[in-house]
Each structure stands twice: as structure tokens, then as C-alpha cells.
Amino acid sequence: MSSAEDLQRIEREALAAIAAATTPEEIEAARVAHTGRKSPLARMLAGIGSLPPEQRGPVGKAGNAARQAIEHALEERTSAVQADALASRLAKERVDITLPGDRRKVGALHPIMQVRREIEDIFLGMGYAIADGPEVETEYHNFSALNTPEGHPARSMSDTLYVDGEHRTALRPQTSPVQVRVMERQEPPIFAIAPGAVYRRDDVDATHSPMFHQLEGLAIDEGLGMADLIGTLEYFVARFFDRSLESRLESRIQPHFFTFTEPSIELHVRWTDKRGRSTWLELLGAGVVDPNVIEGAGHDPERWTGFAFGMGLDRIAMVRHGVPDLRLMYENDLRFLEQFA
Amino acid sequence: MRLPLSWLADHAEFDLTPEQLADELNLTGTAVEAVHYQGIPPAEGNADAFVIGLVQSVEPHPDADRLRVCSVDIGEGEPRQIVCGAPNVAAGQLVPVALPGGVMPGGMELKKAKLRGVESHGMICSEVELELGAEANGIMVLDVDASPGDRLVEVVPGVSEAILELELTSNRPDCQSIAGMGREVAAILDTEFRPLDLREPDATGAGEVGDHVALSVEAPDLCPRYMARVFEDVTVGPSPAWLRRRIEAAGMRPISNVVDITNYVMLLCGQPLHAFDLERMAGAAILVRRAEEGEKIVTLDDVERTLSASMLAICDAERPAVIAGIMGAADVEVTDVTTRVLLEAANFDGPTILHTSLVLGLRTESSGRFEKGLPICLPPVGMTIASRMLVELCGARMVPGTLDTCEPIPDPPTIELRHARTNLLLGDEVDPGESADILRRLECEVAEGERAHRVTVPFFRAGDLTREADLVEEVGRIRRYDRIAPRLPRIVGRGHRTDAQQIKERLARRAADLGLSQAITYSMVPESDADRLRMADDDPRREVVKLAHPLSEEMGVLRRSMLPGLLRAAAHNQAHQRAYGGLFEFGRTYAPAAEGLADERDWFAALLFGQPESDQWRLEASPVDFFTAKGLIEELAGTARVSLQSHPNSAPYFHPARQARLQSGDDVIGWAGEVHPLVTDEFGVRGPAAAVVLDLDALRAASPEKPIQFEDLVTVPVSRRDLALIVDDAVPAARLPEVARSAAKLVRDAHVFDRYAGDQVPEGKVSLALRLVIADPGVTLTDEEIDAQVRAIAGALDAELGATLRE
Predict the structure, then answer these.
(1) Is the pLDDT of residue B481 over 90?
(2) Considering the domain boundaries, does residue A103 fall inside one?
(3) Which of A99, A140, A334 is most worth mutating to test chain B (most B CB atoms within 10 A of its CB)?
(4) Same domain for A88 and A116?
(5) How many beta carbons lie within 10 A of that of residue B181, not counting itself?
(6) What is the CATH number of the domain that holds A281?
(7) How many C-beta atoms surround the C-beta of residue B216 within 10 A?
(8) Do A138 and B597 touch (CB under 8 A)?
(9) Which helix H or strand E contains B381, and what residues bound it?
(10) Would you state the pLDDT for residue A221?
(11) Is A227 within 8 Å of B578 when comparing Cβ atoms?
(12) Minimum distance, in Å, between the CA of residue A285 and any CA atom of chain B
């Protein structure tokens, strides 16, 4: 048998053994058996020296080629086996992907406060500041400065929660006194909203609460009138109900009466409830600030005009989220609150 | 107020459906709460299904004793056979007939029917079935000039009525009447107003009014006008059907013709009237005076009421006969046997009527009108109409003359309305001709001018239209606001949240992210909360702001602490299927202040209650204890870039050994602790509870204003070394990082990350693991430099705290 034939046989056997190896151990055994010092190939190459000189070159060349082929096969087989091993290990690591992921419980902001924040953001975008004031207020700021006449029912102790017997101070029955304080401490132009808790002497029931929340707005500048108020309210309605100005919720202005604005209006929106019933819903009260109010705060009503608006945050939250009973807003029941997370 | 449209039509022209009219009113300032229908429903063609029938014959039903078979002519040529169950049906009667296909009041559609085998081609109706009355004895027999087949709606007024339910604003007392609304409707629709008929009846009574009664007004400030007339030979009885129907449609109850006339005239023109039985007036005298303190009167509703000196009484020679403008006494009222009637038409001070009505808890149709302030010119209008009706409907003879005490009537005000001001306040160009036209429709006199109109206000609007802005409103609303092109003001304001407001936003968001939900609890709490919180008797927090007229003891004072509200909310949750949870709240506390207002402070407070259970298959629930609360307050303060140090604290409502006051340097920022078990018991909260409170003003003050400055810890290595130290159990753990920081200036972070006490360390000692992070921004430290820092730290820990490195 010629050396060339031997080499071919050796290479064939080696490659077959490598191909048959399925584990790193078997590959190692094949490597030792077919490329080690005692392997037929090593012995063959070691015997080159005893060959006739003219055969040494070709056999040596062929032997090296065989060695390279075997080593290449070993490398390939090693990475193939490793890849198989990894694949089979990963396959065994299969999980039920439908089991729940790790989630930390997230709490909810109160729906009234969510509504408050959204409305604040809309007016912040129009350049309004957020103002605050005391909740225990003077009779002057609660009523007189807002043009509420003596003897008006709102001033009675059956409507307002007074903190003293002489009725000089009371829990504010609306956020409007904040407007007065802003006008007192700031020169126009004024653009401010005042959200906060207000108090009335109402027993708790499905639509009443002795404490609830309002958001009041005030704009005083040169040249402001009803057109600016209507434009502002329309923009607000479009933004708050998440529609574009072009497809905004249908709304309409109904003239109304408030003591601190003249002319006064209400904004009604066409609202469709959960059951698909559509009604006109009073969203807020507003008006052109009464000249008495502006003058009372120390500004010239001939030069400065403006508008004010006020809305009940509790009611807006109830309508928007379909909450049927105001008491739910103040029970702080987690089964209720967590629905708004 | 209920506005029956068939009555309104007497005074204003309108060619609109009730819904259309309601829209027009809503858009011009008269709020329509609802549209009610009474009687024959207004469906298309329905009026044709209700006609006049002439009963031609009545035969017994072959199979039923109570039924009759009638032959009724309804103008069709052939009479119809109609079965009727009423005992009063008789030949020759004119009756209302409903035909098959007609929709009855209440919505039922009438069908051809067989009653006990006999066909009935319609139904003869009663007043109840037509919603014309509350009760009926059999069918309705009509006494009208009509022919069989005539449509009922044209013959019987009010048989198909639409009623608008109005919610009037307090500035429009002039609208509290049919005629007033007629004027308003005519003005907004620009149609004709049909004024009231003010013809006086002939005075055919004996003598002169002064011969019959003496009038004296002692309190003209509360009663600027009092008019009285006397009527003789009055026949008291039921009112005619049309009058009863109108009164009922307007929401009142018919009583007798005299009383009904006073109510009718009030509904018609807005002037409340009062009728007395003159025979029962002691001394035939009327005295209008302030009530005496404690004076008693038994009113019509059989309630004895005690008057006070701030109230006004109409008295006879002996006692109060009427609480002025509100309700009369039972024993001077007109009865069936009354023949001499004294009729009052007066003007009373609105606030006095309102006050009296509130104090007595007695509100009537009359007081509701007076309380808003009625014009002094109105009493003669009511007096004239009522006089004529008493003569025409009660056979009365009016005694000549009228008693009338009237304070001077002020001239109607004249107001300047500048065109520029109209345009400014409305934000629109208003044609002066249009504004003049609108004001004239409202019965103002307008002298038009180049620059301004001079406007004289009618007497019935004198209380409401007093200034230029009031006129601008009238022009604006009648002109319609939807004609104004909306625009937006210029933006000149700040438009962003203040630092304090931003901190609150971040706190809310972080608290919610940490699993807490936001609560809102009432600011009004029971005064006994101080006991529940175990406040000492001399604790200044027992000083509270009390409400003068609280709704209940449970809401008697303003809170001084945020905890009770949250604890009550926790108890509520535990009673409602939530054994554990977390709540937070932004709220105010109120302390009495030396002068006037309260000292109000804003807080963030949070409460973790109950032992949480994990509801996740891989995550453990963390316990609720002091360290949960401390971690929470530290994380929250971190949103304002404020780091806190714990100091011992001794609040009575916290666990005495598990509470801390958290400070930023010397400034107190908040508190954290486990709630005292006696306090949780007191509020009915089960299991552990831990609370944190943050002073929002203090937190904002401690929050750095400077933006965060970059330090180069990016291009240089940062070394971490952990030291295990044995220290005395009494050494506060926080001392270790403190000492480490002061011993080596390159310490970036130092904190205790493990603690062990037990067999491996000696009695009275504890093993604490201290993590050190050492780096020098921008400088790469050598191992030697780092080792030197660590050696310095270990030395200082040993020297200052006796802390030894554990082998």
C-alpha cells in the first residue's frame, strides 16, 4: 500500500471519528486518537525520514494537508457541539411566559387631583400662574370684595361654615377670595388660577359634601372682554376633553348671574354618559369681572378689564369617570382609588 | 317656577315648540330645567284623536251591570258605539272622546276594544284620564259652546299643556310671573308683548274704604307700601275650572275662589296678595309693625310660631294676623262663610322677609317673591286685577276707595351706556342701533347718542339694572353670545409651577410609584381626636379652631394633625376587605392665630397600615415598621434633593422607641414612626401602622435652588471598600458613616449595609458592615492613596467609637 493511500485512509478515519463525536469529551478523545503523538498520522509523519528522498516532499506535504483538514474538522466540530450544548441548555431553561411578570404595585393619584392637575397644566400653558390663599378667610374676602350683598343667602350661617360667632371669619365657600388676594397684591396684567378645597354647610349625600374642590381663574389685562373669555373656555374644553379645537365637544354659553361678574355666563357641554344618554351639562360659571370688584382691589376699572371663571373639580371628576356618588371621593376606599392608578 | 305655555301665550307671541322655546330661553339667561307635558301628549296628529262627543243614547250592557253602551255623535254622520263604565253618563251630554289610535296622557295608545263582548270604538274620558284634575266622579261633562267632532284642544284650555320648569336667577324677580316671562319672551324673540288688562271694576259697595277699616304702618322702612281695599257680598265657593286648571298647572293647589284669585294674580303679575276675612279682624284695624320679641302666631299650617323683633307682622287691633309676606294666621283667613274681604297688596323689605323665612324655616310662594325685592310700583297692578276678578267671579261689590301708604317712589334711574364700553366688555363691535333696539324691547327708554346712549330703566328692572355693566349684559345676552368671535388673550404670565408646587407634584408622583394611593380627608374633625392621639392635657395642639355652627360634633373643629384622617381611612379600608395598604395626602392644618385668621400649614402625610402579604409569586412583601417609614420619608425628601438625619423624638401618638424626627441640618423637615398601638386601637386600625409627615414649607426651604453640578466620577475609577466592624450596641449606627466622612475627605458615600448581633459577636456588641465609596473627581487615586484613606477611617472609628475591625 502506498503512503498516499495510507494518508487518505488515516484522514478519512479521523474525519469520520470527529464527525461521530457528539460531546466535548468525545471530540477530545478523537483529537488525541487522530492527532496525538501516538496517532497513525503522527506515526506516519514521524516515518517520513525513512522514506526515499524523492517521496519525502510529496508525503510530507500531503501529511500536513491531512493534519490541517483534521484540525479544521476538530475546530468546526467543537463549535458545533458547543452550539448544540448551549442550545439544548437554553431550551431546558424554558419558562411559562404567561406567568405574571414582577410588578411593584403602583398607587393612584386621587381622581379629583388628577383632574386638578390636568386643568392646571392647560392654564399653565396659557401663561397662568397657580395661586393659593387661606382657607379660613375674612368676611370681606369671602363676600364683600366679591360684591355679595349683605343679607345674601350665601352669607347665612346655614350655607357658610363660620369659625367665630360674629361671622367675621369663615371657611371659604369658594376659591374666589384667592382672586381678590391676588388682585390686592399684584398689579395687572394678572393671569392666575386658584385650585383648592372649599367648604359649605351641606350634609353629606350623593351630590353634596361639606368640603369639596374648586378651580377658579382670573385674567385682568387691558382690552379683555367676553370674546377672550369665550375663546379661553373653548380652548380649555377642547384640551381637557382631549379633542382638537375643530372637533371639540359641543358646548354653548348660557347667560347667568353671579355677583362678582357682569355679564355672567355658564358654559354647558353636550355630554354623553356611560349609558349613552346625552344631555347639556353645566361645566362652569364665568363672566366679565364686575368693575366694583376690580375697583375694590385698588385698580382702575376703566383701564383694566378681565374675566373670571370657576368650576367644581369634584363634579367634573365624577362626570368624566362616571362616578355616581360624591361620597366615594371622600371615603378613601382603596377599591375605589386604585381604579384610577 | 312652572311656566304653562298656554298661559304664557296670553302675553307673548311665540311660534315655537316647547323645546325650541326652552333653547331660546337657555341661550338668553333663563335656565329651563325641564319641559313637562300634561294632558293630551303633543305627538303629531294626536290632537285629532280627542274630540267633542254628544251622547245620543245610553243602553244597558247585555252582559255587565256596571257598563253602558252609548251611542255618541262625534260629527262623523254615523254615531259611534262606545262602552262606558261611568255612572254619570247620560244622553244629551257633551263629553270628551278619545278615539282609537290616540295616545293617552301617560303614553298608552288607545285601541278599538271589546268589553264583555260589545265593541267600543273609543273612550269617554274623565278629568283624571285627561290629567285635568286630581280626582273625578265619572266622566267629564263639558259645559262649552262646541259641536260634536270639534277638537278638544281648541275647546278646553290647558287640555294639552306644556310647562317649562324655570330656574330663575336672583337678579330677575321680575321674571317670577307669567306676565314677566311674557315680557322676557317677547323681548328675546322680538315679538309682541301683550300687556296685562288693568281695567278697574265699578265700585258699587257702601260708603268708602276708610269707613270699613283703619290702616296704620308703623314700620315704613320694612313696609314701604301697603294698599288695602274692601269687598262686600263676597260669595266664597270653588273657582271656575279654567282658573283651577291654571293654578294647578303653575304648581299650586286650588282652595276657594277668593284664595285662588290672590294666587292667580300673584302667578300672573308677580305681586303677592293677601285676603282677610274683615269680620274676623279685631277692631277692623290693620297695623303694620315689627313683631314683639316672643310674640306667638298660629299660622295656616297649624304650627305655632314664635316671632322676634326683627320680623314684620300685619296685626289687627289685638294680635299678629300675618307674618308679613310669608303666611297668615288661621283665624283671620277667608272661609266658606266669609262675606266681607279685605284685600292687601303690599311691598316688604326683601332681606327682612328672607331672614324671617330662614329663621322660621317657612318658605312660601309669597316669601320666595318678596325675598328678592319687589318693585314698589307693583302693588297697584295686583290690586287692580284681583279687584276685577273678585267682582266678576265672586259676585263681590267693591267699596270705593283704596288705602295706600306709599313711601316716595324714586325716579327711574338713567344710565349712560358708552358704545366703546359695550364693545370692550363684549369684545365685539356692536351696532349702537342694535343695542338701542334691544334695550327698548326690554322696555327701557333710550336716548341714542353719538358716543353713548342715555338709558332709563323700567320700574320692574330698577333693582337689577343700575350700572353700565348691567346694560352691557342685557345687550350681550339678548344679542346672543354665540355671535361673538372667540379670541385668546395675549400670554404675559409666568406659566409654570413654583418650586413649592413642583415639589408637591414630585412627591405625589413618587408616593404613587411607591404604591401609595392619594386620599382626601375632611379638614373638619372631632375635637376628641386630641385624646385619641394621646396628647397631653397641656399640649398646645389641643388649641383648635372651632366652627361656630358645625354640621356635627364629628366635624366640630379644624384639624391640627394629618394622622386622624388617614387612620380613619385605614380603618374604613380594613372594614372593607383591605387588611393592609398605603395612603398619602396633601393637607392643611389650622391653628388658632392671635389675630383673625388661622395659622394654616401645608403637609404631606402618609400612612402604611396592616401587615402586607405578597400577592406576587416571586416577590416578598416588605414589613411595615419604623424602617419602612424612614425609608419612605428619605426617598420622598430625595425628590426635593434633601437628605435627612434622624433624631430622637417623643410624639405621644408614635411608638415611644420607634420614632424619629428627620432634619436637614438644624431644620426639622418631618417625622417618621410606628403608630402607637393604643392609637391604632383607638381608631380601629388592626396590625402595624407606620406614618410619615413632611412639612412642605420646610422641605422647600431646604431644597437646593442651584442646579445639580457635574462631578467627574466618569473618567476616573471609584473604589469600593467594605469594613466589618464590632461596636458597642449603644453606638448609633449613623455615627459610623459620620465618623468615616469626617476622617477622610474623599469619601463619596458611606452607609451601613448589614447588621449582625448573636453568637459570633460578644454580648453587648454588634457587628456592622460599613460600605465606603472613595473617589476624587477628576483624579485617579493610587492604591496607596485609597489605603491611606481607609486606614484613617478605621483609626478614627476605633478612636471615636471603639469600633474594631472584625477578622
Answers:
(1) yes
(2) no
(3) A334
(4) no
(5) 25
(6) 3.30.930.10
(7) 13
(8) yes
(9) helix B379-394
(10) 96
(11) no
(12) 13
Q: How, if at all, do strands B654-664 and B667-675 pair?
A: antiparallel
Nearest Cα neighbor of A322 from A305, A306, A302, A336 is A336
Contact with chain A for residue B603, Cβ under 8 A: no
Final residue of a structural domain among A65, A92, A119: A92
In a domain, A182, yes or no: yes
pLDDT in tens, B393-419: 999 999 999 999 988 888 888 999 999
The CA distance from B641 to the nearest CA of chain A, in Å, is: 22
pLDDT, tens only, B637-682 = 999 999 999 999 999 999 999 999 999 999 999 999 999 999 999 9
Residue B707 has pLDDT above 60, yes or no: yes
Q: A98 lies in a domain? A: no
The distance of A330 to chain B (nearest Cα, Å) reads 6
Amino acid in the structure at residue B129: E
Q: Do residues A29 and A121 share a domain? A: no
Per-residue pLDDT of A241-256, as tens digits, reads 876 555 567 889 999 9
Cβ within 8 Å of residue A273, ≥6 positions away: A279, A319, A322
Q: Give residue A259's domain range.
A: 111-340
Residue A81, H or E segment: helix A53-92
B204 phi and psi, to 5 degrees? Answer: -115, 5
Which grid coordinates are listed for B194? 301683550
pLDDT greater than 70 at residue B436:
yes
As a whole number of angstroms, the distance between CA A174 and CA A152 comes to 15
Q: pTM of the predicted model, to two decimals?
A: 0.86
- B539: helix, coil or strand? coil
Going through B146-241 in order, the beta strands assigned E by DSSP cover 160-167, 214-217, 225-232
pLDDT over 90 (residue B184): yes
Give the dihedral sign, CA B474/B476/B478/B479.
positive
Do A83 and A115 lie in one domain? The reply is no
Residue B477 corresponds to which amino acid?
R
Assigned C-alpha cell, A87: 442550545
> What integer pLDDT is reported at residue A245 of this predicted model?
56
> Are A221 and B492 within 8 A, CB to CB?
yes
A153 and A63 part of one domain? no
State ipTM: 0.88
B483 touches chain A (CB under 8 A): no
Cell numbers standing for residue B654: 408614635
Q: Which of A248, A223, A210, A237 is nearest to A329 (CA)?
A: A210
Ranges assigned E (strand) in B292-353:
296-298, 304-306, 312-315, 320-323, 327-328, 341-347
My answer on whether A132 and A61 are in the same domain is no
Whole-angstrom Cα distance, residue B270 to residue B460?
Answer: 10
Residues A223 and A180 reside in one and the same domain: yes
d(CA B466, CA B476): 16
* Residue A56 domain flag: yes
Q: At B110, phi and psi to the nearest 5?
A: -80, 135
Place of cell 484613606: B789
Residue pair B773/B707 in contact (Cβ under 8 Å)? The answer is no
User: Could you tell me the pLDDT band of residue A1, with boundaries at 50, 70 and 90?
Assistant: very low
- A163 and A83 in a single domain? The answer is no
Cβ-defined contact of B572 to A333 (cutoff 8 Å): yes
CB B765 within 8 A of CB B730: no
Q: Which of A29, A63, A92 delimits the end of a domain?
A: A92
C-alpha distances in Å from residue B432, one per residue of A226, B418, B447, B449, B455: 18, 9, 11, 9, 12
Question: What is the CA angle B419-B423-B425, rounded to 5?
Answer: 115
Is residue B249 within 8 angstroms of chain A, CB to CB? Answer: no
pLDDT of residue B360: 93
Distances (CA, A) of A171 to A152, A314, B528: 17, 18, 21
Tens of pLDDT, residue by residue over B217-248, are 999 999 999 999 999 999 999 999 889 989 98
Task: Name the amino acid, one letter, at B219.
Answer: A
Instruction: Report the domain count for chain A.
Output: 2
* A203 and A326 both lie in a single domain: yes
Nine cell digits for residue B19: 323645546
